Amino acid sequence: MPAQKRDYGDFLVLIGLASFTLWYLLDAISVSAQPQNLLLILPLSVIVLFIIAIELVLRLKQGTLFSISADEEPLHHTLPVVVLFGAYVLSLDTLGFDVATVMFIALFLILKGERNWLAVVGFSAAFGLAVAFFFSQMLPYPMTLLLLPS
Amino acid sequence: MIDFGAVQQGLDLLFSNFGPWLVVIPGIVLGLIFGATPGLQISMAMAIFLPMTMYMDFIQAMLFLTAIFTGGSFGAGIPAILMNIPGTSSAIATAFDGYPMARKGQHNQALGVALAASVVGALMGYLVLFFMIQPLSYLVLRLGPSEMFVVILWGMTLIASLKGEQVLKGLVAGFVGLLAGTIGFSEIGLARGTMGQTYLLDGIPVIPAMMGMFAASELFKLANKGFIVESADARKVKIGEIFEGCKMAMRYPVVMLRGGLIGVLVGAVPGVGSSVSNLLSYIETKRRDRNPDSFGKGNPKGVVASEAANSSSEGGSMATLLALGIPGGGATAVMLAAFAMHNITGGPQFIRQQTDVVYAIIFANFAQVFLLVIVGLLFIPLLANIVKVPMRYLIPSVLVLAVMGSFGLTGNMTGPATVLVFAVIGWIFRHYGYSVPAAVIGMLLGSLAEKSLLHSYQISGGEISYVLERPVTLGILALLLFSLFSQPLMARFSTWRVAKQA
């Protein structure tokens, strides 16, 4: 049974979804207020905002606005992996798909406790370069590569 | 209904020489590999190998492409079961129970169940195509935009309410997904929600978004686990257990039959296809089951329902392609390109004038289904070894494949960036109990829903009474309401009956 604890995250997610819905509705209206443009967006946005309001009112009534059943895995446990993945994607254009991939795999292995350096270097280099080479040959688009021939 | 002269000619076309059959096994293998690799799509495999079909005759080209389709439909279920990453959107529901089965150490049985259901489903799809191609094409013609819209709405509502205990969150996720699916240029040429970014003009790249929300976000959650299957003994690939899984699937003929029929009917609707049929079949099976709470926790019926439906959708989408010349999705769109390369136009005239070719394609697919059993059984043990790989090796490898695959889909950094953004959204959604499948399906169907609604509005001139003249629309609306309220009503009825008996 997941632990009950005070958590503002879920409340913020609901507010975030409501904000996105409201922003998108206003953006669509600013583009054109014709019925053809708002046929789906307007009623759907109203429904979403209505459901979110119901959810918030229900929680307020139950006194559970900030306390929800949190996932058994705290967010901060997986945060380093998310940050590493973000850095990988953002570095693809600079480091090239080959070098960025090799570095991402190697750093991931180290982060998750692999201490066999031969395995870290061997697997990341072999898998990373093989995948980058395969895709660079298969895809009809140019890929940024630093070591491999493009 | 069946032209026996054309049947004879179709058989002659197939068996007069061995040429057409040479491409079938390579096609199934290619389909299995592309379907089973997250990020690579069946349509991508077909598109990459389409130029090769220039050097084949039409029958051989169609056999090759349909073999990729058949192999890929089953292949997509393999990563869904082993990694909770549907290879394509047609295997989303396979992951709901296939992956929990794998986590319980029943990955061999789950793969066997999926193979048997896929084979029976695909066979059903082509059998229905054989007997019903003409009536089915007539039925599809009767579906107008208003029917399409209510079908989407029905599907969305059902999907969003899958997580029984958090229906409101499911509905929010699904409807926000639908809204996000309309970002970009609308049917009337207005750009909404693009924030001035040109790469959003065509909308959010849905497949990279799907890869981010399904694959990457789940992998983040698994980052601290040692193996997909914790027990070392359970990680063993046992061919006997795969056969056991095949037999297990046969214990649910009704689920298979219902999945097959849903797959054919939904697969025949252009633009909807197997992405929706697997979910509808799953939901219907769960709804009708005596123990709906066992679904999502490793119930083999869930895998049977999903795989039978997505495999039989192939037959349905082929019906639309052959009878109307309309592709139901990416894969049949590539086939339409193959038609054009061979100067052939699909449609009622094609069926009338080249009935023998149509029957030859159908018969070849019967044979492909049996070949899938052999090729599938040979390949599953190889692919199932994935559960033996430690997560610290598996996770970065799959993330890399997803990033590369998304780059392949968009041809620029938009794909990988979309994977990243939606991986984070999916991670947060999962953590706080929002339905990730509902959000993804919403995004997939958003623009189609808007287009259908707009066309209905244009046809009706804005008159709501138009809906009353559409009996099919009303019928589907009634189904929608029934699906929404039947469960709570049945629960109340059961409580009342129990109270009365007491």
Automatic annotation (TrEMBL), chain A:
Pfam family, one: TctB
Membrane-spanning ranges: 7-26, 38-58, 79-111, 117-135
Limits of the DUF1468 domain: 12-142
Keyword annotations: Membrane, Transmembrane, Transmembrane helix
UniProt protein name: Tripartite tricarboxylate transporter TctB family protein
Organism: Vreelandella nanhaiensis
Upper classification of the organism: Bacteria, Pseudomonadati, Pseudomonadota, Gammaproteobacteria, Oceanospirillales
UniProtKB/TrEMBL annotation, chain B:
InterPro entries named in the record: DUF112_TM
Stretches with biased composition (Low complexity): 302-313
A UniProt-annotated Pfam family: TctA
Keywords: Membrane, Transmembrane, Transmembrane helix
Bilayer-crossing regions: 21-50, 110-132, 139-161, 167-186, 260-280, 321-345, 357-386, 398-428, 434-454, 466-485
Region (Disordered), start-end ranges: 290-313
Domain DUF112: 22-440
UniProt protein name: DUF112 domain-containing protein
The species this protein was found in: Vreelandella nanhaiensis
